[in-house]
Write a structure and sequence with these properties.
This protein is mainly β and 86 residues long. It contains no helices and eight strands.
Length: 86
């Protein structure tokens, strides 16, 4: 789970089902669902202004997402093994 640093009204979760969800914390309903990893999402965090999310997965990719639209803006490649913040 990641809390948006710019607002207390939004947080994001990631799952082994390969999805990322951005939630509205005022009603606890999902606002966005993002898909793009080939395997489960192991880690997730917002950038410092809360406009982007970065996710990582054992699919060897890290992805950067627009937190408002849910679109993947970049896929970071180059790793030969799983990617995680742990």
């Amino acid at each position: 789970m990641a809390q948006n640093p710019a607002t207390d009204k939004e947080f994001a979760t990631a799952s082994h089902d390969r999805t990322i969800m951005v939630w509205d914390s005022s009603n606890f309903k999902p606002r966005l669902t993002m898909k793009g990893h080939d395997q489960g999402v192991w880690s997730l965090m917002y950038d410092c202004d809360g406009k982007k999310l970065i996710s990582s997965s054992p699919d060897t990719f890290a992805k950067i997402w627009d937190a408002k639209t849910g679109k993947c803006t970049a896929t970071l490649t180059g790793h030969t093994n799983f990617v995680s913040t742990d």
